[in-house]
Each structure stands twice: as C-alpha cells, then as structure tokens.
Amino acid sequence: MEAAVTAVAAPAAVLEPERPETARDRVNRRWNEILQETRVAQTGVQILFGFLLSVAFTPLFRDLAMADRVIYVITVVLGASATASLIAPVSLHRFLSGQRMKDEMVGTAHKLMMCGMVLLALTIGCTLLLILHVAVPGPLAELLVAGVMLWFALCWYVLPLWLRRRSARRLARRSVRS
C-alpha cells in the first residue's frame, strides 16, 4: 500500500509518509481537534460577549445615537448567537457521549463551529463599528471596519480554502505521476 505524502511544517519541508489511521482513529482525532478548536473560540467569544453586556451599563451608552444603539443590539444578538454555536459542541458531547454517534457529532460540531465563526466575525465587526463610531469622525469608521472584515474573510475563509484546493491539486498531480 502506497502511503500518502504530506508537507510537515513549511512549503520547503521534507515530505514524510502519513501514518495509517483507522476510521475510528480518524473520527476520534477529528473530535479531539474540534474540542481543542472550540476551547480557543469559546474563550474569545465569552470575553467579547461579557464586554458587550457591560457596555449598556456605562455612562457613555446613554449618549449613543439611535443608530449606534441599533448596532449595539445587533452586536449583542450576534454575540449571543456566536456563543451558543461555539459552545454547542460541548452540549452535543454531554448528551451523545457513549451513544456511538461520534461521526454525527463530528459533522454537526463542524457545522456549528463554522456558523459560530461567521457569527463571531460579524460580532467583532459590529463591535469595531460601534467603537469606531465613537472614536473616529465620518465614514472612516465604516471604511476601517470594511477593511478589517475583509482581512477576517481572507484569514479565516479564503486562505484555508485556497490551501485546501492547492493541496488537492498537488495530490492529484502526484497520483497522475504514479
């Protein structure tokens, strides 16, 4: 059996054979990876959500224009939704552990994480917009937020999808040569 080849650290890294993995090992590894990723995302969303909840109780909140209050409400709802999506894999694990449903858990947790990451990016964008409306005059706030959101899209979605596509093309070329 020919082993798949994978790049280890950097593009110029030495290629090493991938270790064989059973279907059960793979689903266990994927579940553990999702739980680790969830821990990272949960921490960020919980800190941001806590900050957002406290904003309404600050003296400056009363001085916000109605448009900024609407942005605040949208931001809090997005933050709550992101929190729910990113913590949901923990609930899945609690309810379904031991039920021999790990494949379904991994697939569902993946979808929840992707949804949660979109909601988190939107929450961050709205939070930034609210802060910049207070700190920066005119349409500069919207321009800065648009730039940051573009950066999020590039880092969180475009880059990983591009890397996946590039890797698939490389593997296809290798299999054609073999």
Main sheet: which strands, in order across? 1-2
Tally of DSSP β-strands: 2
Shape: flat
Rg measurement, Å = 21 Å
Supply the helix-strand structural class.
mainly alpha
SSE string, helices as H and strands as E: EEHHHH
Low-confidence stretches: 1-15
Integer tally of domains? 1
Mean pLDDT: 87
Brief descriptors of the model:
178 residues, 4 helices, two-stranded antiparallel ribbon, disordered N terminus, mainly alpha, single chain, 76% helix
Please explain how this structure is put together.
With 178 residues, this protein is mainly alpha-helical. The chain has one domain (29-173). The protein has four helices and two strands, in the order E-E-H-H-H-H. Strand 1 and strand 2 (15-17) form a beta hairpin. Helix 3 packs antiparallel against helix 4 (140-177). The radius of gyration is 21 Å and the shape is flat. 16% of the residues are buried.
What's the SSE blueprint?
Layout: E1 5-7, E2 15-17, H1 23-55, H2 66-96, H3 102-135, H4 140-177
Antiparallel strand pairs: 1-2
Pfam families: DUF6328
Keywords: Membrane, Transmembrane, Transmembrane helix
Protein name: Sodium:proton antiporter
